[in-house]
Amino acid sequence: MIPYGRQAISDQDVEAVVDVLRSDFLTQGPAVERFEREMAAYCGAHDAVAVCNATAALHLACLALGLGPGDRLWTSPNTFVASANCGLYCGADVDFVDIDPRTYNMSVPALRKKLELARAERRLPKVLVPVHFAGQACDMGEIRRLADEYGFSIVEDASHAVGGEYAGHKIGDGTWADITIFSFHPVKIITTGEGGMALTNSPELAERLRLLRSHGVTRDPAQMTGPADGQWYYQQVALGFNYRMTDLQAALGCSQLSRLDDFVERRTQLAQRYGELLADLPLTLPWQDPAAKSAWHLFVVHCQQTAERGRVFNALRAAGVGANVHYIPVHTQPHYQRLGFRQGQFPEAEHYYHGAISLPLFPLMTEADQDYVVEVLRKALAS
Ligand SMILES: *Cc1c(COP(=O)(O)O)cnc(C)c1O
Question: Is residue 304 predicted with pLDDT exceeding 90?
Answer without folding.
Answer: no
